[in-house]
Amino acid sequence: MNAKTADRIATVVIFAVAAFIVLLLIGLLGFILVRGISHISWDFLTSAPETIKAGGGIGPQLFNSLFLLVLTMLITVPIGVGAGIFMSQYAKPGRLTNSIRLVVEVLSSFPSIVVGLFGMLVFVQKFDIGFSLLSGALALTVFNLPLMVRITEQAMSGVPREQKEASLALGLSRWKTITSVMFPIALPTIITGTILAAGRVFGEAAALLFTAGMSSPRLDFTDWNPLSPFSPLNPLRPAETLAVHIWKINSEGLAPDAAEIAAGASAVLVITVLLFNFGARWFGRYLHRKFTATR
Amino acid sequence: MQTNGLKVNELSVFYGEKEAVKKVSLSFAPQTVTALIGPSGCGKSTFLRSLNRMNDTIGGVRTTGEIWIDGVNINDPSIDVVELRQQIGMVWQRPNPFHKSIYENIAFGPRYHGIKKKKQLDEIVEDSLRKAALWEETKDRLHNSALALSGGQQQRLCIARSIAVKPKIILMDEPASALDPVSTSKIEELIAELKKEYCIVIVTHNMQQAARVSDRTAFFYMGKLIEADSTEVMFTNPTQKETDDYISGRFG
After folding, report:
1. Residue ranges of the ABC transmembrane type-1 domain (chain A) (predicted)?
2. What is the ipTM of this complex?
3. A293–B162 CB contact, under 8 Å
């Protein structure tokens, strides 16, 4: 076989693989959306679920998913970005740094059900937080944090060294160099990483079963006092998320329209993740433009 | 701005065990351009980068010896490196403007060093751009991204950025080697102009450039300073055989 034929075959194979992946994605998305989209209505999105009657909604679950996402990110992003900056700019290369890096990698590939059990033993029982949004957020932090750290570290290390040196040569401190010169360049990558981490929060069910719980109290959407037990904003209340809800009604749902609700909820989940992705990407580009004045 | 220049005494730089610069002693007079020449890997860039302690930012580099500026040995570990670097500007081989607007590239340093008034900053920006012969080309688009400028303009912007914090010495690491001939000659004209105020140290691979822009030339080979003298003497009548061989193109 001569080089030209080999080149042609390789091209065909690569195109075929790419087409297969795209088709798979379209097929998967199409299947979920087609099955679920007819069930989505304003009422479905806002009303509470029914246990045995048909016509229940997913309002509280949708809210719980979004709120849990915000809570988790509030814990993950500052710590993760801070640790990532430390790893790339302050930690001296050596045994200790390498072992921290290894631990971070191992932690991020932990099975989520194990993280969930760990969360139940430590946060729910030991710290006595109970089944709650906070326990769920802490459990999700356990495997989102490593992702955040690694991505920040890579993004900061990917900033050209001349950029850092140019700032230092002007007599700027290391901290000012990191925050004003390097961080804006690394930001789009960090935002992408945050989206990945956030997507995991949205789709995660196993780690939440034993931490955030499988039930939601009767939420009173007029009560915004975070200390009240029926307030949606109370981080110490149990909260069933959308992904957990899908799992629950699929396995033990008693409502006659359980299958339709699961399909509708899946479509909502997918659409929300997509919207979140596009929104965050746009936001990342906007921030990059703002910080760097590139047009 | 008058300065006493720069005096280096027995400077050695080690990468781990390897001695990249071996006991170099060299003086740089104010208002002169000194060219550092030599084949690749001879230690001239490493030497240049040790003059503003930029090698400190890479792990595993150790520098011994003395570097004197205005009676202060800046290679003393107790020296505040951050403050020191303001006195020594630097220009790199590839233009490396910040990912900011043209205005911000220049105002960034002075603002950090305490100049907050917009009028004062405007003056510094204009003054620095004029000195770098870039004002006419950029005055109407100061708030556009610096990355939209051509390579040669970017390099002049980097020079303007470094003089905006009022250094005494400017280090240039092959400042024109990534540029086209027209941009190169602009940079060289600029160096001749800046010489009136600053002590300039330039690393170059280009022998003609060294001959054109510098007053003094130092020849490095295998980490050692072989010879340093006025550029004219170095190019016409060097005392060392290695210098003669290198300048006449027999190696390197």
Report:
1. 62-280
2. 0.88
3. no
